[in-house]
Amino acid sequence: MNNDMLSQEEIDALLKGPDKEEEISEEIGDMEKDALGEIGNISMGTAATTLSTLLNQKVTITTPKVTITTIDKLADAYQIPFVAIDVTYKEGLEGANILILKVDDVKIITDIMMGKDEIDLERELTELDLSAVSEVMNRMMGSASTSLSEMFFRKIDIEPPKSYEITFNEGKERIDILKGDQPLVKISFRMVVGDVIDSEIMQLVPIDFAKEIVNILLGNEDETSITQEAYEIDRDFEINEEPPKTISLKGKKENTTGKIIDNDTKEEAVVVKKPVFETFNEKSNTSYNESIDLVAEIPVEITAELGRTTKKIDEILEYGPGTIIELDKLVGEPLNIYANGKSIARGEVVVIDDNFGIRITEIVNSYKNS
């Protein structure tokens, strides 16, 4: 008789119902998690370079860890205030995500940007801190958006970020993507800034938005939108008289011989090259050949940029003979080449006899197609 009776643990499990974590995990698979991790790794790597330039400190952001959670679980696990930066995409993607930083990390970032000799962690967080971290995140996520644009073959841009000092319970009322009980993708990074910050930052993405990002990356969008993208990136890949043999659009679908091929070996014939492109190119070439003699003798100033940096006025006033200014370019990194201020190419420094020169290694696509 006793063997047929349920234990208290079994009764609690029946009353509780299926485990919420298991239900959430079924909504996004390991492949999607890996894709999100790779996206975060690439975009935050670019953002780390930007932060390093702003703070003049070495910045390292480690490979992310991707998990699925809910706002209630986060509210239980993290009860102290933090700084939330709300980043909304305005072009290329439709959605938003939240970046979570510790309050002390924000104070450190602000003090470094203000040029303070000592970092004060005992002070109260101010509006100046929130404004400073908003600007930092605007620069960082702007750089990350550029990386995403190259990855997704579309222009991606963000709204100016908004920063809040809140708890997760307060976030349920103030931040749209934290309202309700929808699952969230939590992407955790370890961020090391010089010897002043060794901390964890967190990126929270609504699961529906995360799925949309993964679908774009893996090529699971509507066929019509993929075809339209193939037209839009025609100039970038120079699809004119003959399409390239292999152009990866979104991982699962490839443009090989003017067709979109899916993994199920089903082929759908899609004309990648619009007739209007061919006509446009013919006119452009004819006009160019006829008019080049008229402008051939106009002088053009060619400039090679070794690098850039940003300094405060008081630092510049201290400059003198022998001062070394560190630039944002790494050793061996291509230098930018400008024609009358317009970027046209990249190259590497060479020495010709006693003179410096620059060998062109890459022509900028926008100049090449203009």
Please give a structural write-up.
This protein is α+β, with helices and mostly antiparallel strands and about 375 residues long. It folds into three domains: about 20-215, CheC-like (Chemotaxis protein chec, 3-Layer(aba) Sandwich), CATH 3.40.1550; about 225-275, no CATH class; about 300-370, SpoA-like (Surface presentation of antigens (SPOA)). Helix content is about 40%, strand content about 25%. The strands form three sheets. Strands 1, 2, 3, 4, 5, 6, 7 and 8 form an eight-stranded antiparallel beta sheet that branches. Strands 9-10-11-12 form a four-stranded antiparallel beta sheet, with no helix packed on it. It is globular.
What Rg, in angstroms, do the CA atoms define? Answer: 26 Å
Q: How helix-rich are the residues, as a percent range? A: 40-55%
CATH superfamily of the largest domain: CheC-like
What is the straight-line distance between the termini?
85 Å
Strand residue content: 15-25%
Q: Give average pLDDT, whole number.
A: 75
The level-1 CATH class of the largest domain: Alpha Beta
The structural class is alpha+beta
Apparent shape: globular
The largest sheet is:
8 strands, antiparallel
Structure summary, number of beta strands: 16
**What order do the SSEs take from the amino end to the carboxyl end, as H and E?**
HHHEEHEEHHEEHEEHHHEEEEHEHEEEH
- Helical stretch count? 13
The CATH topology of the largest domain, please? Answer: Chemotaxis protein chec
Low-confidence stretches: 14-25, 223-266, 276-289
Count of distinct structural domains: 3
Q: What would you say the CATH architecture of the largest domain is?
A: 3-Layer(aba) Sandwich
